[in-house]
Amino acid sequence: MYAQMVDTGLRKVQDAADMTPEERDFQAGIDADYKVEPKDWMPEAYRRTLIRQIQQHAHSEIVGMLPEGNWIGRAPTLKRKAILMAKVQDEGGHGLYLYAAAETLGVTRDQLIADLHAGKVKYSSIFNYPTLTWADIGAIGWLVDGAAIMNQIPLCRCSYGPYARAMIRICKEESFHQRQGFDLLMTLCNGTAEQKAMAQDALDRWWWPSLMMFGPPDAESVHSAQSSRWKIKLLSNDELRQRFVDQTVPQADFLGLKVPDPDLRWNEASGHYDFGAIDWAEFHAVLKGNGPCNKERMRTRVDAWENGRWVREAAVAHARKRAARTARQAA
Amino acid sequence: MDALLFDYVLRLGDTDLVLAQRLGEWVGKGPVLEEDIALTNVGLDLLGQARLWLGYAGEVEARFAGTGRSEDELAYLRDGGAYRNVLLAEQPNGDYAATTARQFYFDQAHALLLRELARSRDERVAAIAAKAQKEVAYHVDRSADWVVRLGDGTEESHARMQRALDDLWTYTGELFAGDAVDAKLAEAGIAPDPSTLRDEWRANVGAVIAEATLTFPTAEWMQGGRGRGGKQGVHTEHLGHLLAEMQFLQRGYPGAQW
Amino acid sequence: MSPALDDEWPLWEIFIRSQHGLAHKHVGSLHAADAAMAIQNARDVYTRRNEGVSIWAVRSADVHASAPGDREPLFEPANDKVYRHPTFFPMPDDVKHI
């Protein structure tokens, strides 16, 4: 998901015997669906895990503006250009809401950005892939936003109030994102042979990375159990991944596109699709920084931030000058 | 008259479109997240206005040419010589000061122009202009505020802002240079003679520049004059690259639907 | 690693009264260098520039909160979101989950 493999800092799931009285009270509140708010007492591990998770999510939104922004200039109609600009702008807004939620936990946005630029925190693996054709923009809306929605809806019920509320706002804006991607692909699939081939090629390249978005298999997810206990992760990686496949394959069928998985087949007995093995080596390589676009994405973000430093400084300097003038006039 | 009106409306639509295209290049690369979002909003506004103008242009074209092109045909299938945007719009983004200066000069002129166009005898021109006015009033405030922040900020921002104002000054003359098309439309009460707006613009721009502790540019020579400006289809080298990128898919896959 | 403070913009809390509401509601926060910017950016981020909306911006540092025990909600979800480009695509009936 946008926040993958979030480290809780704990070696094992805490049970009652491990907890202090405050932690037990805290856990009882979580179990009773109490919403934790910024000034409540919370275990330090809970706070740090949330900061990591929300931050990864926020960074993902911001970095995610780049692969899609790559096609704003080349959008093939004015309407599509406007839609794409609005979508990418929404993503910027989502990043902003999430940074704001993280800031309620005692960090500043600038600190989080510094951590990202120093390589200390991650963003979703999916945004390290290139957008090579216009069809990729459709694939991102359909698959990547589709996967994001699947994760975000349950997060609207997570235990931390500001995060849950940010997710509610985000979910309201998200439905148009997935639909615009699917609509884009429908147009291509109903178009010329070249356009249809473009759509198939995009699916071929984005399918497996989209499945990887949900993170490693549950058996290998050491931190998921504790996050689930704290209700900041509400569904398991495998569960979400399976739902995504079940939901998306019929959509691919509708488009007349073939999912690039020779092992994909409907399992009548289980009522789900069986699908092939994911190349986890690729996933880990991308997370380590060796994906097709990692270096470029980070370079772009670091440059934007560094090149914009004089602008931010100017605004601060100006605000101080005005405040000083106002103070002098009042005196 | 329709042929002239068509040309005039293209000037409005093309200018908005080219500027929107430029602003789109900032997405994900702004100095701070809030600015990214705000600048994209300005771009979206201008793109929306461009679509209204180009849509109307196509209708006007049908009246005298028998058939009129769609907004996309106009945007994607005309070469640079047929584009009628002002030279200022196609200048590259540069740094944030350059983008701000371009926007500042344009917004101030745009607001005055729309004020006049909102009184046009052509109902559609008046309607589109009235709708655009609200958005552009906001653009004017935004860009003026940023000129002041950067001009009266740090030494570095002051220097960059001054240079940007000086560099782009030579493209502002075209905004107020009237030609035969303007004269005919002014006569018909459809559009103003742009030279009538110059003094007011200079006064407004001058006030902001002064508040920003910057110096009013003094260079005299204006590009795009004597009938050889962007409005007449004579552009700078920048437009060709901008259009090549913008139009690639439609040109590369002729006749396809997107 | 802490960034140079001279380029860090303070955090502001944003309160909005929509056209139909009577009281300002807290919608979230954003960074701005000064009050005018905070309000302008609030319009862009939290209202997509709906006319007639009233916006309050308050520096977060100036917001005083009660003790956790008798807390009032500081953050509330925005009830409506104005879409600049309402691009609701009619999806074919045959397509589920979208």
Give a written overview of the molecule.
The complex is a heterotrimer of chains A (331), B (258) and C (98). Helix content of chain A is 65%, strand content 2%. Chain A has twelve helices and two strands. In chain A, α2 runs antiparallel to α3 (78-103). The mean pLDDT of chain A is 93. Chain B has 258 residues and is mainly alpha-helical. The mean pLDDT of chain B is 97. Helices cover 13% and strands 20% of the residues of chain C. Chain C has one helix and three strands, in the order ββαβ. Chains in contact: A-B, A-C, B-C. The B-C interface holds B 32-35, 37-38, 41, 44, 134-135, 138, 141-142, 145, 149 and C 9, 30-33, 36-37, 40-41, 43-45, 48-49, 51, 84-85.
In helices, the fraction of residues of chain B equals: 55-70%
- Give a quick account of the main beta sheet of chain B: strands, pairing sense, barrel closure: none
Numbering strands along the chain, what is their spatial order in the largest sheet of chain A?
1-2
**Extended strand count of chain B:** 0
Secondary-structure-derived class of chain B: mainly alpha
Distance between the termini of chain B: 34 Å
Number of helices of chain A: 12
Counted beta strands of chain A: 2
Mean pLDDT of chain A: 93
Proportion of strand residues of chain B? under 5%
Amino- and carboxy-terminal Cα gap of chain A: 55 Å
> Helical amount among residues of chain A, as a percent range?
55-70%
Report the order of strands and helices of chain B.
Answer: HHHHHHHHHH
How much of the sequence lies in strands of chain A comes to under 5%
Structural class, from helix and strand content of chain A? mainly alpha
> Order of SSEs of chain A, N→C?
HHHHHHHHHEEHHH
What is the gyration radius of chain A calculated from CA atoms? Answer: 22 Å
Radius of gyration of chain B: 18 Å
Biggest sheet architecture of chain A: 2 strands, antiparallel
